Amino acid sequence: MTISLTQPGQFVVGCNYWASHAGTQMWSDWRPEVVERDLQALAEGGLQVLRVFPLWPDFQPITLLRGGGGQPREIRMGEEPLPDTEAGQAGVSETMMERFAAFADLAEKYGLKLVVGLLTGWMSGRLYVPPALEGLDVLTDPLAIQWGTRFVRYFVRRFKQHPAVLAWDLGNEVNCMQAVKTRQAAWVWVSAITNAIRVEDQSRVIVSGMHGGLDIWTTPMLGELTDLLTTHPYPYWTVHCDQDPVNTIRTILHATAESRLYANTSGKPCLAEEVGTLGNMLASDAVAADFIRACLFSLWAHDCHGLLWWCAFDQDHLAHAPYDWNTCERELGLLRADYTPKPVLVELGAFRHWLEGLPIAALPERTHEAVCLLSQDQDQWGVAYSTFVLARQAGFDLVFQYGEQPLKEADLYLVPSVRGINVISRRRWLALLERVRQGATLYLSLDDALLSGFEETFGLQVQTRSKRSSPARFEINGLGAFEVQAGFRQDLRAVGAEILGREPDGNPAFTCYAYGKGKVYFLSVPVERVLTETPGAFHRQEAQPFWKIYRCVASGAGALDGRVVGKNHPLLGVTEHPLAEGERVVVVINYSPEALEDILVLKPGWKVGRVWRGVVQAGGIVRVAANDAAVFTARRAQD
Fold first, then answer.
1. Do 569 and 598 form a contact (C-beta atoms < 8 A)?
2. pLDDT band at residue 11, thresholds of 50, 70 and 90?
3. 597 contacts 571 by C-beta, under 8 angstroms
4. CA torsion sign, 432 to 407 to 419 to 249?
5. By C-alpha distance, which of 281, 236, 227 is closest to 254?
6. Opening angle at CA 331, ends 326 and 332, nearest 5
């Protein structure tokens, strides 16, 4: 099968690679016999793709000679003038290019495809740049951009015909090389490098390679200039994610939620390009394997294109920086120094072979029922993250967009935890209300925002606003009592809204209001933002079931009516994938470290078809192993 990083429904497994004997010194300490043994072991483990790194100062070892007054005089390689060759004029080492050619040939020999991180100037906490560029702002300085562009053009030209090269990555986490101050400067750098690649090779995917994309390096900008966005979803490093055990729902859904956020807001596919647990201080080898198994199924079910582990080999024997500096860089491998595989590699290989055994070549895109609209002045990632988890618990799927992007069509719009005075522009807000007027449903939760047209939109009138001195407590009809650490309280009077939940003194907390042909649900507390900041809020037995509010809204909107399969357990997630007329693939994922059983509710006229994983009985009883999945087809009974 042809491997693709952007083909819908296709999924690759792989890892990030540095040679087992040398780490970042693999090119200067080149040992092809060790590299070949490495690649053979990774291929035998079931991997398909390696992300690899031609270290920038090794491959472009240019120096800057200066004249009087310290003025720049000439770029050379050490003391030698640049050779009058194509490589020399690009400042590129022919020796290193020959070594990379040998490496690519070995990858081809063992059936491994390469994602090449072109400008690898940042790696594992250390900055690596050519001597000529030391001390410069390498992402904005004209000299650095000039020589970086020359390197990229020559490298791509040299290897664009090599069959092992799958994609060009801008570089490893280039947004960590320098604190770029403006979005315009970030755009200029990405544009320069992507254009340099495309001048030489129009056939391969360009991968962003970024560590994040919610600040200066925005997802819309990366979607404009590259073909594939990336996430590096390490729970330890990502805000809001380092709260719960790695084998529980919040942490498992980190990679999926972040990847879908990047894909939806950029308009381009997204790959979980670096995933790992950062060693045994955070999770045992066995728990890490459980974590990665659940991550694989979750990413696959949400069209996230693949997972690359960080990294291939343990590096605890290396004495040079960054391994001498950073303890977290030493025990991250899929294989130990003696080449014995860790359980995570076993899971990656098993998943790849399970996929290849399916009777379908690619998983159709999942259905979704809602759009999560992220507003300004809020913690967009944190709110998006908890909203995604709540929707999974409630039994429906969503896509993301920013409030200032053109409104996507949906029957249900979630506008969670709005905050501040710049929630959404007037024109976008009116477009949203027009969708509701025509029959859609809107849910909005409040985190001390100032909203215009509040009374006519929500059927509520604000009497006063005050800061809370104690948690907000309220009870919702049929759902029970809840408590939230909200900052402010609006004293509200219903002027048409139906009150579904109240605070103890009767103040409306959860309401529904008819708006044209649609409905507007209002929640007076920022559930999503608070849950993002609360350890154990989603998986503990005593956790408040806020997901029931989401299910109430989705049911009231009729958003669940199109679903073929319903579930009850909040730690199971269900996705549906239309396969053919009258048939869907159903993926039930267990986001818990315990085996779970549930009774699925099949839509009248539908029945369980072929079971490809797990135990699914004709009556809808499903049994899913810990951190695993059940996969089956559902068919119309008459088909």
1. yes
2. very high
3. no
4. positive
5. 236
6. 100
Would you state the pLDDT for residue 182? 95
Structure-model confidence comparison of residues 140 and 211, the more confident one: 140
**Per residue in 170-213, pLDDT tens?**
999 999 999 899 999 999 999 999 999 999 999 999 999 998 76
- Phi, psi (deg, nearest 5) at residue 480: 110, -170
Q: List the structure tokens of 400.
A: 């993301």
Residue type, position 460, single letter: L
Q: Which of 453, 444, 448 is nearest to 468 (CA)?
A: 448
Cα Rg of the chain, angstroms = 26
| Interval 404-419: pLDDT, tens | 999 999 999 999 999 9
Residue 58 identity? D
- The pLDDT of 79-89, averaged and rounded, is 96
CB burial of residue 126 (10 Å; 0-12, 13-18, 19+): middle
- Condensed to tens digits (0 to 9), the pLDDT of residues 325-362 reads 988 888 999 999 899 999 999 999 999 999 999 999 99
Q: DSSP per residue over 411-426, as a string?
A: SEEEEEEEEES-SS-H
CA–CA separation, 189 and 439 (whole Å)? 44
What element of type H or E holds 183?
helix 183-200
CB 589 within 8 A of CB 596: no
**pTM, entire model:** 0.97
Query: What confidence category does residue 2 fall into, taking pLDDT thresholds of 50, 70 and 90?
Result: confident
Six token digits for residue 82? 């640049």
Which of 231, 251, 301 minimizes the C-alpha distance to 537? 251
Report in angstroms the alpha-carbon separations of 111 from 46, 60, 163, 312: 10, 28, 10, 16
Alpha-carbon distance of 401 to 517, in angstroms, equals: 24
* Contact (CB, 8 A) for 256 and 299: yes
Nearest residue to 375 via CA among 416, 431, 414, 423? 423
C-alpha torsion sign, points 158, 163, 169, 171:
negative
Q: Which of 1, 210, 249 is nearest to 113 (CA)?
A: 1
What would the two tokens of residue 512 be? 């529904």
Mean pLDDT of 1-6: 87
* Closest by CA position to 621, among listed 565, 573, 555, 583: 565
Q: Distance between CA 184 and CA 583 in Å, rounded?
A: 47
Tokens (6 digits) for 85:
């060759």
* Measured distance CA(394)–CA(567) in Å, rounded: 9
Residue identified by tokens 């590259």 is: 226
Q: What is the distance between the alpha carbons of residues 234 and 242, in angstroms, rounded to a whole number?
A: 9
Strand 518-523 and strand 472-476: the pairing is: unpaired
Task: Give the DSSP H/E element, type plus range, for residue 457.
Answer: helix 454-458
